[in-house]
């Protein structure tokens, strides 16, 4: 897997990673996001939140989209944006899981951990995005 970088106006480069179309996709994505955040000097408790949300978003793309396609990470103005692309056209829905259900909490977690989240249709499918406030390690508290 190789990551590519493109620059969005007013932000650091966008990191784009093709995702495998198998059960390794969440782990591959988590490692790429961890590496990207470390490279950007991002630190603190929000890192774990972003990594958990990454797993949930990619797992949803694998299980509910037609197939995961790629992950993008962008950082600007103390905000990290994750975008997970898949080839499905189904729109994600925030469900209220039964307390006894072992599953169906992924988007609930993304909703709770992020500042904002949503989805957009795009050529070839859709992407689900989430925004997190993450400070750089060298930023005074």
What's the topology here?
Elements: E1 4-7, E2 13-18, H1 25-39, H2 46-64, E3 68-76, E4 79-86, H3 106-113, E5 116-122, E6 125-133
Antiparallel strand pairs: 1-2, 2-3, 3-4, 4-6, 5-6
Describe the structure.
The longest helix has 19 residues, at 46-64. Helix content is 30%, strand content 30%. The model is unreliable at 1-10 (pLDDT under 50). It is α+β, with helices and mostly antiparallel strands and 141 residues long. The radius of gyration is 15 Å and the shape is globular.
Key words describing this protein structure:
141 residues; alpha+beta; six-stranded antiparallel beta sheet; 30% helix
Give the termini separation.
Answer: 35 Å
- Element-by-element helix/strand order: EEHHEEHEE
Structural class label: alpha+beta
Instruction: Tell me roughly what share of residues is in helical segments.
Output: 25-40%
* Largest β-sheet summary: 6 strands, antiparallel
Number of helices: 3
Mean pLDDT: 84
Outline:
The protein has 141 residues and is of the alpha+beta class. It has helices at residues 25-39, 46-64, 106-113, and strands spanning 4-7, 13-18, 68-76, 79-86, 116-122, 125-133.
């Amino acid at each position: 897997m190789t990551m590519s970088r493109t620059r969005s106006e007013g932000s650091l480069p966008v990191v784009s990673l093709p995702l495998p179309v198998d059960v390794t996709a969440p782990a591959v994505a988590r490692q790429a996001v961890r590496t990207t955040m470390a490279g950007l000097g991002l630190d603190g408790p929000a890192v774990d939140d972003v990594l958990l949300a990454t797993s949930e978003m990619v797992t949803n793309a694998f299980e509910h989209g037609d197939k995961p396609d790629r992950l993008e990470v962008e950082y600007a103005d103390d905000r990290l944006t994750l975008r997970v692309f898949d080839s499905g056209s189904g729109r994600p829905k925030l469900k209220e899981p039964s307390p006894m259900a072992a599953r169906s909490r992924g988007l609930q977690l993304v909703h709770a951990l992020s500042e904002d989240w949503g989805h957009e249709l795009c050529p070839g499918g859709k992407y689900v995005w989430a925004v997190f406030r993450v400070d750089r390690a060298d930023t005074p508290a």
